[in-house]
Design brief:
single chain; 81 residues; alpha+beta; three-stranded antiparallel sheet; 1 helix
Length: 81
């Protein structure tokens, strides 16, 4: 199992799910993924506090993160097998 950038995926990883055009859609912990499949495999346990602090020097706007992904060519979903 591998992420969009080729990194090996493991249950328990903190992950961000992207839309096919690179927008952030969900954040959480990967679970129930089965090795051998990079498509429609596993689930995300959503991680979100009811209220979380924001220290601006530690944050990015989602549009800026999407632009960084595009610069690296990671905004598009890989072709299916």
């Amino acid at each position: 199992m591998h992420y969009r950038n080729g990194r090996e995926a493991k249950n328990g990883d903190k992950i961000v799910r992207l839309t096919s055009d690179g927008k952030i859609e969900a954040f959480g912990v990967l679970h129930s993924a089965v090795p051998g499949n990079d498509f429609c495999n596993g689930s995300i346990a959503v991680v979100q506090s009811a209220n979380e602090y924001a220290c601006m020097c530690d944050c990015l706007h989602v549009e800026d993160l999407a632009a960084l992904l595009a610069e690296k060519g990671l905004e598009k979903r890989p072709a299916g097998k």
